[in-house]
TrEMBL record, chain A:
Heterotrimer of A, B and C subunits. Belongs to the amidase family. GatA subfamily. This is Glutamyl-tRNA(Gln) amidotransferase subunit A. It comes from Olsenella porci. The active site is at residues 80, 155, 179. Its EC number is 6.3.5.7. The lineage of its organism: Bacteria, Bacillati, Actinomycetota, Coriobacteriia, Coriobacteriales. The keyword Transferase applies. It catalyses: L-glutamyl-tRNA(Gln) + L-glutamine + ATP + H2O = L-glutaminyl-tRNA(Gln) + L-glutamate + ADP + phosphate + H(+).
Automatic annotation (TrEMBL), chain B:
It comes from Olsenella porci. This is Aspartyl/glutamyl-tRNA(Asn/Gln) amidotransferase subunit B. GO terms for biological process: glutaminyl-tRNAGln biosynthesis via transamidation; translation. Its EC number is 6.3.5.-. Allows the formation of correctly charged Asn-tRNA(Asn) or Gln-tRNA(Gln) through the transamidation of misacylated Asp-tRNA(Asn) or Glu-tRNA(Gln) in organisms which lack either or both of asparaginyl-tRNA or glutaminyl-tRNA synthetases. The reaction takes place in the presence of glutamine and ATP through an activated phospho-Asp-tRNA(Asn) or phospho-Glu-tRNA(Gln).
TrEMBL record, chain C:
Pfam families: GatC (PF02686). The gene is gatC. Its EC number is 6.3.5.-. One of its GO terms (molecular function) is transferase activity. Heterotrimer of A, B and C subunits. It comes from Olsenella porci. This is Aspartyl/glutamyl-tRNA(Asn/Gln) amidotransferase subunit C. It is an enzyme of class 6 (ligase).
Amino acid sequence: MANFDQLSAAQIAAGVRAGDFSATEVARASLDAVDAREPQVQAFLEVSADLALKAAERTDQARARGEELGPLAGVPCAFKDNMHLVGTHTTCASRMLENYESTFTATCVQRMLDAGATPIGKANMDEFAFGSSTESSAFHRTNNPWDTTRVPGGSSGGSAAAVASGEVTVSLGSDTGGSIRQPASLCGVVGMKPTYGAVSRYGVVAFGSSLDQVGPFGRRVEDVALAMNALVSPGRDPFDSTSQDCPIDFLEHLEDPIAGKRVGIVPQLMEVQGLTDEVRDAVNGAARALEDQGAQVVEVDLPNIASAISAYYVIAPCEAFSNLARFDGVRYGYQEQGCATLAEQTSLSRAHGFGEEAKRRQMLGAYLLSSGVYDTYYYPAQQVRTLITQDYERAYEKCDVILMPAAPRTAFKFGELSDPTQMYASDMFTISNNIVGNGGVSVPLGLGRDSGLPVSAQLQGPAFRDRMLLQFARSIERAYDASGIVAPDFAGKGGDLA
Amino acid sequence: MRSLQEVLQDWEAVIGLEVHTELTTLETKMFCNCKLSHDDEPNTNVCPVCLGMPGALPVPNKKAIQSIVMAGLATNCQIQKHSMFYRKHYFYPDMAKNFQTTQGPVAFCMYGHLDLEVSGEGASERPDGVETGTDTVAAHDVAAPVTVRKAEDGSYTVPIRILRIHMEEDAAKMVHVGGEEGRIADATESLIDYNRCGTPLIELVTEPDLRTPEEARLFMEKLQQTFRTLGISDCSLESGSMRCDGNVSLRRRGTRELGTKTELKNINSFKSLHDGLEYEIRRQAEVLEEGGIIYQETRHWEPSRKRTVVMRVKETADDYRLFPDPDLAPFDLSDEFIDDCRARIPELPDAKRDRYIASYGLKRADAAQIAGDPVTAGFFEEAADGVDARVVPTIANVMVNLVPAFDALTPAQVRSISTLLASDAITFAQAREVLEAVNGTQDDPERVVDERGMRQVTDTGALEPIVDEVLDRCQDQVQQYHDGNKKVVGYLVGQCMKASKGKGNPKLFNQLLRQKLEA
Amino acid sequence: MPLSQKDVAGIADYARIALTGDELQEMTAYMNEAVELLKPITEYDLDGVEPTFHPIGDLSNVMGGDVVDASVRALPIDVALKNAGSSEGRYFRVPSILGTEEGDR
């Protein structure tokens, strides 16, 4: 029988439903693949074999009782380690939370489980999601399955690598400035950041509360659509004030043709410094592929887009400082021992619990929010946010979606980008969408002409038009015949369905 | 130190209050669905949200927002349709997130006022002829102008402006262990109970319009009455569900520039508020008169030693890194929402007092006292329901002077005893005795009066022979009366009472005696 | 004007992040570089532009009911305390709070 890594999420759910194989068999196959592939990939911080087998057993028992199974029945799934799941640790890849046991389960995780998904484990990430390479994880690096000497991108690098290596079928990541779309691009998988508010943030450790959004990874657009259906059902989460009802069903129009629709290209973005030729050419190729399917390509302007990075690096550190203030070593988290006073305990717990980048961002945020400085940077940054939002609104009068790169270049080597400010530039195509809150998806375009590594296009759309984004993504996927590809070094390694 | 009256002849005290009130009548906390704790075991009512667990998110309690809007409407505030929650950061473990969710420059309620009526001894704290100017703080031009209206008897009415009332969350309770008397300074460790953390809290800030400790006390009293009437809090200063900080500075009479203020904390009774402010005013006057300097500092009132001590010197303004909370959507209150809140507001104490005066002819002081407390007012109205209008002032009199001594009287019992009193069937002293007998029972006072044969004889025909007998017996006193000593009637009434074995009505004896003596 | 080490030490003190001498020097350099990167924000003409504190703008008045959900989210005492570095009985425990200022609230 086939290796489970060749099956789509829908095929797994259908197979479990039909009795072709059990959820337990799929779970064992996934755990087996994890065993075989993890030594080279290192996508996981924790493999939750017991939880996985118990969940799969429940699915099988439900089937035996004749119950209707969920749309993700038996589908192996990984969760970024900033998402709570009772029975696992949630470390955010930080010493600060090394021993933190989840006290509740995040809404996004629960909804995947409710849809029948099998929780394989918790995926590596940049510490507290600060980074674009997963190198700032306090525990270990994660290797890009396409070239293990290279980074998987970040911050959701583990989630992207676990899917690209075929260890799991789908995974969840979070995207604050590109943390789903950029690693998806570097690992050659589909990664979606839905519109802000579409997916509940309850139970996901916050980085930038007005920027963070949870979304799925998959090797197929269809798998991502299936996961999106689970994440937005049955409607807004009453535990997240910023959560909103999101239109479903993501599968319904997935195969509809895009003929007659308009694809926007921002010429300014195709010329930015740091964008490699192979990526630019590949994205232009994607535009032609959409044209071939009857879409119209139009030029649109986002005049204030260059300021998105500055606005982001004001807003994100401020929100990060505020969100991470709670890690004081009192109620949870690393606690320095032997301190005479609370002030000493707090300062040393935070100094020794947080990694460098986490400290940098909090320090910057604490400075930018201080009185006087707030008016110089924070308030104007939020005004610039308005300008960028208006730019997008005007652009979407002329087009349905905007096509651009997801990352300026393919996966880089470990340690290659060591200067933090240089690293920030790797998010230049993704950040603006977090600033305005709209949805975006990165779709593989095959391997780069020069690097031989995965290259992706990014599609951005207006608020809550995420279904249409996936419809476009599916059109690209179809043109590139890029559906379901596992990184070749790992495809079929362990994971056969007995 | 000189007395308050002396000090206030030379100095004007400028007082502002910050009042925190927990919305104790709600079921749940401000941003989560944990039960509001009263006497629960430590850390019983906690969840990821109020423990500030990573990944938890706040959802505002609708009833809390309704409550603060009601509080604003009841204190003549302008309800701000558009406002937001902000995060106020400081590292202290009683705030689980190390920031407090509160409001920014715009609060739900802004620019209100309460009118104070100051009379009696308290009014004398404010020297005659001194008017509060309208220029104290020009923070809002829309509130009532600050002018004092004085009456002949020295009492006066003054509006106290309210700058804002904002919504926020309360902190956890900390127990300091290892030190003497739980004092922070010597404690070797502290224990934290997050039950209170996240309790809905409204903070009211007045303009510095108060001028005397008595005004401050009356303001707090009126605020307590108003909030209790609204039913949004039990407003207990003792238990800390209502807390008050006072800011006070002095300036020479006739000058306008504000002096350096100190902040007074640990005020847990109306008396502490009055006495703490009085002490602080007298202390500041002494320092200033000796050429000293007042430092901007927080001072702790020690009621047992009747003094304030320094808690903390504020050298620079605290920087709390305030910014709008991204986890909480902004508010854009609709007219419907505000109108709905308005419709939930019951009759407020001032209106109730005026109605009692107009419809029942109550004395102003009695009416104000009864109307001030919603439980008392409800009791009174039930007792007065369907009663002859002439009896109602007696009910009010009983409510004010007799009822507070008992804990378990029913409105029906008060109605019954008041009816007996109004018809002169018993004396006030007898009424007290009867109430003692029926307190905590369902017994009708009238039955007790009859059982004990207390009912006084009010039939003049039966009393006249006794009066005649006494006048006949006490010729000396009769002569004294005719010589101008009218007070001697009291003695004669006493003789009549004795002769009637206490059954005669003293008021009637008095009348009959006077009639006969003048005849 | 660039931030001095003293400025950065003050921020670190407020943010409760202990820094060694070397770390302070490094942090100061980083912060000055980062702030320089933010300059474009200060160069905009933003007169009359409303800020966007919350993306996806038209969301407002989100509130929940005043209903106890003890069975859904309240944490049993062992769960509430299980991640705490130090506890005593039913309480969380901290060392002496001497030198720690309570906020003004």
